[in-house]
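Quick start: read one record
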Amino acid sequence: MATTVAFEDDILKLIFNATPIVGIAEDATTTPATEYFVSLHSEDPLINPSPVQTSGEINYTAYARQAVTRDATGWEVSGGICRPEETIEFPVVAGVTSPVQATHFGVGTLITGAGKLLFAGKLEPALGISNGAEPRIDNQAIAARFESSWA
């Protein structure tokens, strides 16, 4: 079943910007999420039968998921697509004995641990994770989109 791009935007704005969909849905009123946490992955975390934030997650000294505010200052929604508003910068890589590639990124609910993975996006080009590298996800990376928008 297809949907309109305007409604896709409404759904993404509800999830990423905490914007209610009038007459249909509103953001949690008691304890709404105020941030999402972006992670780097060496493979598509969604290939895991039960994907969580730690599925294929990169690990190096000083690595940490990066918090992005759950509002319009953190995420841009337009045309059925969601992107980060700003470049997301991760700590400088250190302590890696064998370089790897970050091919995907995830958007989840916890700063650490196996939290709920909400979305995953492909990094193009992949990010080299080797000592001294400064991994960054630019604001053109697609964090979420609907299947009908892929055409």
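The CA atoms of residues 87 and 138 lie 4 Å apart.
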